[in-house]
Amino acid sequence: MKDISYIIADNMKIYRKSKNLTQADLAEKAELSLDSIKRLESGKRSMSLDNFLRVVDALQIPLSFLLYEDADAIPEAEQILNILDGRCENQKKYLLHMLRAMSEEMDNLL
Description:
Layout: H1 4-18, H2 23-30, H3 34-42, H4 49-59, H5 76-84, H6 89-109
Helix pairs in contact: 2-3, 2-4
């Protein structure tokens, strides 16, 4: 297993790029210096809890998403919560309805 600082660094890069943010964009959104973001993404600098929270808030992801070496290791419940996060109530109800319907159909197939 990789050192946690390198896991966080790799995940920061992945999520930053998936949001089409440059390091400078992330630094601005997180209210950190560009140099800090560069050092964090290189794994050469540890992060205070305050800065960790600033980064995940700027990336708009759950903080645990930076901690897993493999995205498939993120608990399913947390992945579902992330999908629902930021959706209006009607969208949440629809998505949950679809998940239940798909689950019932799968039960019928087995």
